[in-house]
Amino acid sequence: MITDLTKGRPSSLIWRFTLPMLISIIFQQMYNICDSVIAGNFVGSAPIDGELALAAVGASYPVTMLFIQVANGINGGCAVVISQLFGAKEYVRMKTAVSTSLITTLALAAVLTVGGLFFCDPIMTALNTPADIFADSALYLRIYIAGLPFLFMYNVCTGIFTALGDSRTPLIFLIASSVGNIILDLIMVIPMQMGVAGVAWATFIAQGVSAVLAAAALFARLKKVKTTHKSPLFSPHMLKTVSRIAIPTICQQSFVSVGNLLIQGLVNDMDSAVLAGYSSAIKLNTFAVNAMACISNGISSFTAQNIGAGKHERVPQGYKAGMVFTAICVVPFLVCYLGFSEAMIGIFFSEPSEEALRIGVSFLRAASPFYAVLGIKLLSDGVLKGAGAMKSFMTATFSDLLLRVVLSYALVPDKTVIGVLTIPGAGMGFSGFLWAWPIGWGLSALMSLWFYRRGNWRDTAFSEALGNKKN
């Protein structure tokens, strides 16, 4: 169902529109977590085999997240343009934006697939992947990369549904995909005994089926939107318009993932038990972060549609509703991660080592109290992105990245060698991460909030797609 977010009470619209997106994220993260749970509990015949399998999946996790973030960047870029054109009732150009985005996305996915398969082993080597998990990590990553066209197509299709005010259809596909992925995980890992490869193939198949069905449903939905004349399938001008938002968003998402890769390199330089504990905690942390980012994406679509319709005054009302929703969303994560941290980490292992359990619990207890702060940052960023204020959006996002990476390299190692350059560190070991993440979130949240409160996004609101010229 296509929903006009420019009419009606903003708080009610935000809740009805964002709740299905939040449920989608819950299912998406559940099957991501299940990958690790199944790997940690059912691969091999001894506890140490499961711990190594979990470490193998976790070692490649930042690389897979890099590809996901590129897909999300394209998703976000085309969604802002499509939302604004939809809000302005420019349906012909809206359809051109959809088809142009899909064609460009599949072309980019093909390039990344070829490049990713070619450079898979060098990437895992550069990340200091331990020798005892290298083969499984590289195998998992190769299978995952082979499915990138499906991943990109699915993400862009769901982004377009969201841009049109439909957050329920992506939920249906994601629930089906998640349940299918978990069932395939269990079949391929337990009776078929395919190990880490089984976990990867389950994701490949589930994403492939979901992508094809999502694309078919999207085209059927767009046929119902009546236009005065046929829209061009591809437009260089529309590609430029979408790129104006998509490229900064892709850069933002990619650089954050590159930062996480650099951080992962520090973790991989430690032993496999530390890597296994960190991998389990980072999956749980990503669950919470993505839930808040989902609300931010809802605010972004709300902002884009209302700015396209010239209703700037509704944006702060949506922002306040998002604040309330975020506060409610944070509570269960705080309860679980602070009150039941050992049990949460324990689900990833049949018999966790003392070191792996300690590492995972320490990270959860250090990061989760700052989720509300991160939520404020993400909501503010959502308004900036929806308004097309990309300079402010990128500045606020890069500050988080730079702070976390710099602090990690300053606090964690005794020294870090990059080429011929040796950088001294505080030598705090893993406890350095426990300071780097909340400090980075806190300082970047202040910057994001300042950009939102300053209000320049009202003046820099994206209007090129509508044929207007503003600063």
Question: Would you kindly provide a written description of the structure presented here, covering whatever features stand out?
Answer:
The structure is a single chain. The chain has 17 helices and two strands. The chain is mostly helical. It has a two-stranded antiparallel ribbon with strand order 1-2. It starts with 9 loop residues before the first helix and ends in a 17-residue tail after the last helix. The C terminus is likely disordered.
Judged by helices, strands and strand pairing, the structural class is mainly alpha
Which term fits the overall shape?
globular
Q: Whole-number radius of gyration? A: 22 Å
State which percent range the strand residues make up. Answer: under 5%
- Number of discrete helical segments: 17
Distance between the termini: 34 Å
| Helix/strand order, N-terminal first | HHHHHHHHHHHHHHHHEEH
Q: How many strands, which pairing sense, and closed or not: the largest β-sheet?
A: 2 strands, antiparallel
- The order of strands across the largest sheet is 1-2
Poorly predicted runs are 44-48, 416-421, 461-471
Please provide the count of β strands.
2
Oligomer: single chain
Mean pLDDT rating:
81
Helix content: over 70%
